Amino acid sequence: MSMDRIERWASTLRTEWPFKLRFRAWPVILIVLFLACVVTGGLVVATTHMTRVQYAQLQQLEQEKNQLQTEWGQLLLEEGAWSTPARVEQIATERLEMRIPDVNDVEVIRP
């Protein structure tokens, strides 16, 4: 009894369907649509994962950049301190035992 209903339903589906698709094409269409959904879902997951990985790399690179900028600023301050005339005079006095000559120690040479 139920087999007759299925056959009747299939025959009406074949005759009433507006696109002239046969009943046998439905499983193929459904499989193709299912595979398209699975592939699309996989691509969405892969893209999301790649985005998160790249964002983590971006954060790490920005942190490294900030650290390098801090070090660069410290080096610039240190360079400024090392090149001041007072620092140069102090090193010349302590290490090289240099001193500013007295007025009596200066000789003027004329051409």
TrEMBL record:
Query: Which Gene Ontology cellular-component terms appear in the entry?
Result: cell division site; plasma membrane
Q: Where in the cell is it found?
A: Cell inner membrane; Cell membrane
Q: Which GO terms describe its biological process?
A: FtsZ-dependent cytokinesis
Q: Does the keyword Transmembrane apply?
A: yes
UniProt keyword Transcription present: no
Which positions are tagged coiled coil?
51-78
Question: What's its membrane topology?
Answer: Single-pass type II membrane protein
Segments spanning the bilayer are 25-46
> Which InterPro entries does this entry report, sorted A to Z?
Cell_div_FtsL (IPR011922)
Q: Which UniProt keywords apply?
A: Cell cycle, Cell division, Cell inner membrane, Cell membrane, Coiled coil, Membrane, Transmembrane, Transmembrane helix
NCBIfam families tied to this protein: ftsL_broad
* Quaternary structure and interacting proteins, as annotated: Part of a complex composed of FtsB, FtsL and FtsQ.
Query: Its biological function?
Result: Essential cell division protein. May link together the upstream cell division proteins, which are predominantly cytoplasmic, with the downstream cell division proteins, which are predominantly periplasmic.
Which HAMAP family does the annotation name? Answer: FtsL
Record family assignment: Belongs to the FtsL family.
What is the name listed in the Swiss-Prot or TrEMBL entry for this protein?
Cell division protein FtsL
